[in-house]
């Protein structure tokens, strides 16, 4: 049984919201009564995702946002506040992978792409979310890290570095804002059944699955439930955490 939350009158902002964990979280926020702003670089799919929420009675808009572009992030957060009047929850989910590579052979462009989206994109998102939340004196932010932020993986150095960085950003922001009524946490998903994972090297997935002791892929909806809990009053004493949602991967 899924827990039930009442987020009526609240506003949630989700990046990378047109597929996978992002759209699952957006749908879960809407089902709990929140007004949701879905932000994604893909204008067509993000509007489709927002329309699907509206089709079942939810309140949502889609906005174009490349989190690697600071100005677009600012505009997307401002749109959320202008449309719905506040910003209560944020799930900074947008992220990318690049092909596996020995670090000695990896092109700079791969490193820059991962760092710009996975790390600087989270920093930029928090920057503008926190500007609004500190005015309100309230809010909850969840950053999507990864088990790759807790451990290392062969041939994934830039990705691991970016996700370790997300956890560091989370901890620093949590320290700065906890006393101001704003909680900042991160989640560390294991291997989840998303389009990103579907495009990964199958040998790598098989290796990961050997250590994911629940012996199955996670589902985006399971990550969404962790995000909602961290945003809820049920997690009111959880600050600066890096919550594994990984089928036991980091315990193995």
How many separate domains make up the residues?
Answer: 1
CATH architecture: 3-Layer(aba) Sandwich
Specify the biggest β-sheet. Answer: 7 strands, parallel
Tell me the strand percentage band.
15-25%
Estimated structural class = alpha/beta
C-alpha termini separation: 27 Å
Number of discrete helical segments: 8
CATH class membership: Alpha Beta
EC number: 1.1.1.47
InterPro entries: NAD(P)-bd_dom_sf, Sc_DH/Rdtase_CS, SDR_fam
Protein name: Glucose 1-dehydrogenase
Enzyme class: oxidoreductase
Keywords summarizing the entry:
252 residues, alpha/beta, Rossmann fold, 7-stranded parallel sheet
How do you describe this structure in short?
With 252 residues, this protein is an alpha/beta fold.
Structure description:
The longest helix has 29 residues, at 108-136. The chain is an alpha/beta fold and 252 residues long. The protein has a seven-stranded parallel β-sheet with strand order 3-2-1-4-5-6-7, sandwiched between helices. The protein has eight helices and seven strands. The protein is globular and about 50 Å long. It has helices at 20-31, 43-55, 70-84, 108-136, 157-177, 195-198, 202-211, 220-231, and strands at 11-15, 35-40, 59-64, 89-92, 139-144, 182-189, 242-245. Helix 4 (108-136) packs parallel to helix 5 (157-177). It has a single domain (11-243), classed as NAD(P)-binding Rossmann-like Domain (Rossmann fold), CATH 3.40.50.720. The two termini are 27 Å apart. The protein is 46% helix and 15% strand. The model has no long low-confidence stretch (mean pLDDT 94). This is Glucose 1-dehydrogenase. It comes from Novosphingobium clariflavum. InterPro entries: NAD(P)-bd_dom_sf, Sc_DH/Rdtase_CS, SDR_fam.
